[in-house]
Amino acid sequence: RVEENVDERPKQMVVDGGFVNRENIVALDDKEIELIGPVPEVRSSAGQMQRRGVDEAFYPAAFRYDEATDTYSCPASKTLHYSGKERRIGQTIYQYQAAATDCQVCPFKERCCPTAKAAGRSLTRRVDDAAVQEFAERMETEPAKAIYARRGAVAEFPNLWIKSKLGLRQFRLRGVTKVGMEARWACLTHNVQLWMRRCWRPQWAT
């Protein structure tokens, strides 16, 4: 839409957390647009492990990964071998599986994989694409943090002004068309007021 409006593709986009996901990161990287935004928090697997009845001593962090053999070793020193992978946008999920014969006779089975009745313990390793890793590294730099710190004052001010000065805290009409008309009038009013402040007030001061 920016390109349609101004006939030029932006070199950088600053967004809030609601727009930061792997799909958008990859899409903007393909368009050579620099994305600035908060890095999403990595979801913990603790909840899933608890639901499965896995003891904390056998959470994924307790398994050692060997890059040379592409295998994992469990706390009982058994090996989980690579079993496949799943490709998602911006990420590859590698899957590892222990032999059922190892897990079924293991003294730690009820603490490690109590729900695996006939199979061995499984594990996944998630690897982000280069674009996603570059975004995370970029947002650790001070220049990127400084740019993002300015977003609130620029992006949130119109919402505050429209709610406070124009009193639009809820729509007075119903239906997508009528609500769209009301929103457009509010945005037009805000833009005209902003133009007045920028263009007329300096003249009044002189």
Provide structural commentary.
The chain has 206 residues and is α+β, with helices and mostly antiparallel strands. The chain has helices at residues 2-6, 22-30, 46-51, 100-104, 109-112, 130-138, 142-149, 151-164, 176-199, 201-205, and strands at 12-14, 34-36, 64-66, 71-73, 79-88, 91-98, 122-128. The two termini are 38 Å apart. The mean pLDDT is 92.
Considering the chains and any ligands shown, give keywords for the structure.
7 strands; alpha+beta; 206 residues
Rounded to an integer, what's the Rg over CA atoms?
26 Å
Shape: elongated
Kindly report the spatial arrangement of strands forming the biggest sheet.
3-4-5-6-7
Classify the helix fraction into a percent range: 40-55%
SSE string: HEHEHEEEEHHEHHHHH
**Secondary structure category:** alpha+beta
- Give the amount of beta strand, in percent: 15-25%
Low-confidence stretches: none
Q: Overall pLDDT, averaged?
A: 92
CA-to-CA gap between the ends?
38 Å
- How many β strands by DSSP? 7
* Oligomeric state of the chains in view: single chain
Largest sheet: 5 strands, antiparallel
Number of alpha- plus pi-helical segments: 10
